[in-house]
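queue> holo job accepted (2-hydroxyethylsulfonic acid)
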Amino acid sequence: MKTILVTGSSSGIGKSTAIKFVKAGWNVICWGRRFKKMEAWKNKLPEIDQKRIFLQGVDVMSENQVTEAIQLIPEKFKVIDLLVNNAGLALGKSPIHKGLIKDWEQMIDTNLKGLLYVTKMISLDMVDRKSGQIINIGSIAGKETYPDGNVYNATKFAVDALTRAMRQDLSQHQIRVSQICPGMVETEFSEVRFHGDKKKAQQVYKNMSPLKANDIADLIFYVSNTPTHVNVADVLILPAQQASASIVTRDSNN
Ligand code: NDP
Ligand code: 8X3
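queue> job finished
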């Protein structure tokens, strides 16, 4: 039986991914700061699935919490075959001279430093075992910048660079490293970005059909289930109505 660790699984892409994999018979370790949110969706699953889920309240910004959490993983879940570095967020959308330094620091600490802490500690064991797979959740924001995206763009460009660098370091140890880069996905992402402003968040997806978290979970599942001689290195996945980071066709435009 295989084991996956998904960071950021209290909502959105991480939650859908955790559920997809547990339904496919995997053991699933879920990390997120909001333990109760993870508990709530876990409790709705059949008991047979619940037994294969291990929840941990972990803030990936804290190197100590990441280290301690790994030490507390029970024997049954200890061999991690797949790490999905999904925890991440955008905070704010404003020109560089109006950005909030606190928001910048949290994005850098989560999307970049958090991903690094988790990757270092999990990949150590994968290197010893000479097997494993790491899928980083990048973004179209890591492929092209857009006005007011600045620091979020920078963190996702960093994920893009790290994915390539990690592949160069780890492929010799039979570890596959890939990146999935979504465009607009309707999750809690925009609500978080706009500091809880639901109305502003709804505007992002107005008159268009965004991707759903399940679309990304399906892709993660596909990438992780290719034969071991295959590495799907980098995938950009967009809603049909999104042509680039800044070009979206709204229904009312037609
Ligand atoms: P959500 O806001 O729904 O989910 C984000 C998840 O990340 C939550 O489970 C949150 O859990 C977790 N998270 C945030 N900060 C931390 C932290 N410090 N430690 C641990 N977990 C953390 O958004 P999405 O599902 O959309 O986002 C998932 C990933 O997808 C992110 O990396 C995002 O950048 C990326 N992405 C999203 C797109 C979109 O349009 N939605 C498009 C492209 C990429 P908690 O708050 O409980 O800690
Ligand atoms: C999330 C997608 O376009 O809002 O990474 O930056 S976008």
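queue> The chain has one domain: 3-237.
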